[in-house]
Amino acid sequence: MFATSQSKFTLLLTALVFTLFSGMAIAGPKAYVGNFKDNTVSAVDTAAGTVVATIPIAAGPHGMAITPDGRWLYVSSDGSSTVSVIDTSIDRVTKTIEVGKSPHGVTLVPGKELLLVAVNGEDKIAFVDTAKQAVIATVSVGKPHTIGVSPDGKVAYISSQVPSHFEVVIIDLDARKVVRTIALDKTPRDLEYSSDGKAVYFTKAGANVIDVLDPASDKIVAEIPTGVSPHYVNHPRNTMYGMAIVQGPGELLLFDVKTNSPVRSIKVGDQPHWLAVSGDGKTAYVTNEGSNTLSVVDIASGKTATITVGNQPRKVAVQPLAVGAKVSIENFTFIPQVITIAADESVTWSNNDGGPHAVAFKDGSAGSETLFPGKTFSRTFAQPGTYEYYCSIHNYMIGRIVVGPR
Ligand SMILES: [Cu+2]
Fold it and tell me: Is-above-0.90 flag for pTM?
């Protein structure tokens, strides 16, 4: 009798909790914006278009890099000597790493647990082991600003801003040695290695062009005309066009990466600074330092929307759409909340929490038994589609598997 009424009560409570939380939306990937004047980082939910957290950070948020799974964000502070590590599942700084005075650009090395930091104030590149969260090596480079790394993780190209000795410095990352330098006539600004590995792009102060360097020959093979004061430049992942931020006219310039010629200019805000592209390559997020906004640009149509962030927004990074097959259950949360896989791939959930959880699907298809701490559950998804799921013990814990074509 007692057992029955207790289980009835549990059922009722579960139904109530489910009703309360079933209206909760799954958040989109987040964009992170460093507000240079406020010493904060704004976390923007790109699905809702709203700032969902403002994270205090050491003075002068400068370079930003986000891990491919979208979990960890690294932010250097040029008014300080640290790189802050933000856990994006809680939007808080969980560690600060001492790297040396006035760190500028930060870049993750593909395929390695390695973050490179341009320590401008101490004329060196710091190699940060992201597992140990500590500097494990340094290589001397004069006044380094930004770092582009080849997709195979073997070489880094660095813009070096030593007065009247401007150059691009090339480091062999395995040997941890400077192997070549390329002399320049003007101060290099942003430098990026294209995601397809075919070009290194950079801009220079006082030159209204994008320099295109062929990493196979280390020769400058083209100069693409821009408006006044080009800054960020790259050919981001999953995009058809190369992209540059042109500060003078306040524009996002799209260029053809085969012919190295301009295609289209899209008006953004005042004094734009940087951009990041969504994981599907469809949307560009542009910081506008002069208008304290983030422009959200639909690349295909050129349509823009605006989100107000903090003061003097400079760098921006966007969580990629997490691709892969692993969901970690931590702190009553599925991390990442949304993942995309191809049909016939499987997903494994690991309970890394202190108590039991269980995976249940909204369509009623087979979920897991109760997963005690340390236990895992795997399921293969044969059919493309969107699979919403939740924890049958804590209904407010929700997630989504997006299964694409084979
Ligand atoms: Cu649970």
Answer: no
